[in-house]
Amino acid sequence: MTPRIQPDNHVPVYLQIVEHVRSAIAAGVYRPGEALPSLRVLATDLKVNPNTVQRAYDELDRQGLIESRRGVGIFVAKRGARSARGRAEESIHAAFAQAIGSAHAAGLSSDQIRELFDDSLEEVLAESGGRA
Amino acid sequence: MTPNDSGGPAVELIGVSKQYDRATVLDNLTLTIPRGTTLGLIGPNGAGKSTTIKILMGMLAPTAGQVRVLGIDVARDPASMKRRVGYVPERHDIYPWMTVGEVIDFTRAFYETWDESFSCDMLGVFELDRRKKVKQLSKGMLVKLGLLLAVSHHPELLILDEPTTGLDPIVHEEFLDGVLRTICQSPCTVLFSSHNLGDIRRLADSVCILRNGKIIVKRGLDDLLASTKRVRAVLADGHLPRWEPEGTLWQQVQRREWLLTIDGFSADIAERIKAENAVESVEVFDLSLAEMFRDYIKGE
User: Fold this and answer.
1) B36 in contact with A, Cβ within 8 Å
2) Which of B177, B197, B261, B271 could be bridged to B295 by S-S, CB 3.0 to 4.6 A?
3) Which sign does the torsion angle of CA B78, B80, B81, B84 carry?
4) Which of A10, A43, A48 comes nearest B286 by C-beta?
């Protein structure tokens, strides 16, 4: 896995690891039933405390993305890939909610917010060469 | 690990003070580090970080208070404590005239629990040459040798005093790697002091901020980051702040902008700031550990 921990970011490091593993599962780097890196490997790879990796794996287990089998290892859950993509939508939803919150605090109306959203969508799609 | 002390905390300081002549360097410090956790000790230069560490290692006697490390009273039995602790001092004291190999062989003799195969692994990871003289080693190589010597006996407690200060990025990463290999190899409590807040984020479960010999915060790192927020309120024309929330660490008013850093922040606090003050808007921002650290230090 590519090391992607940003120690300056205010997001707790364990959640950064959750996101990192989740995106790897969603992208198909690890498929359902396959083993994930051990605590030790991921901790030294990402240069973070193994306690923090354990917390991240506990959280992924709770979300149903992975299964840890005592003494054997940690595996992507059967429905892990689908839930991982669901989680992607969830985190994007949270990002939208935050942006809408700031727009609201700045005194923008719902119509103005929608207009800004449409503008941004068009801009991004134009840049990436996609179609609206 | 002896069975009678394995359940207690790895480190216990109770009411520890240290005075030099009339200057108070540590002022009634009480601090506990549970086993298997990592504590990052941060604070400005002269806050008392190194003094705290030297007292833990039995190198300085406290003026008052009790110090227990791995259940051992440090004042009574420093030798048996040191056999179970690994220590990387701020300035190394490795004999310059020895070769790397000689230093390793010499140090091994002090520890029954020395793990030669782990030591050899670390030698390889750190690309240290056994034949080289210590005085010919670069700063980075010396620091890595210091860590190898401190961890090859599988210490139950590892104490690092500003270990990564002045290291280049490659050696810095190798050093972190060495610490993590140690923690992963066998359960180990870690106490490290650092000015590198990135290292604190990566390694620490909890942080302790020292200032002028006093602990101003000791908290789980994620809890600290989640509960400390920056608020920006825009004051109505001609008005000054009237009500300031409890837990305000730092604040500043410039023109209409009122900035506050608040410990123990909740949505209710934002509502009350709005209700109790003549403000046009209130916004809440997350803080990085560096910004938070600065506000704790400036605010006290």
Assistant:
1) yes
2) B261
3) positive
4) A10
